[in-house]
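I can't quite decide. Please look over this sequence plus structure tokens:

:::
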Amino acid sequence: MKDALLATLIDEYSTVEAFASILTLESQALTALSPLEQLPAIVEKKTELIGVLARLEAARDAQLAELGFPAGWSGMELAASTDARVAAQWSLLQKAAERARRANANNGELIRVRMDYNQRALAALQVNVPRKTGFYGRDGRVPAQSAL
């Protein structure tokens, strides 16, 4: 049964590495002048990989239970303490997950900065300008006003 757990950890590791690669592409897109062409496919792939990771985590928890260990982190720590191969793969998975977590946090900050910039740009465009004859209204027409 430990072989099945080891295989699941290997699959999780490769999926986390794929997720980290997608996060790198997302970071590049977020720093591009026009990211809108790239982001939908990136978000779709991220969503797919998150689903795969959830299924692998559930499988890992089931395998831990079959081996008599609790689910989650504590169970993996116990399982790793009993098998050097599991310990090595668990360590690799943890390091990959930490890299992905840092990349995801960085992308979140890039998104926050971009949103802040967009909000400031929008606010600058919406400044209340005194109405003067000759300025176009919201409908694209010059409003009918009496001259002062």
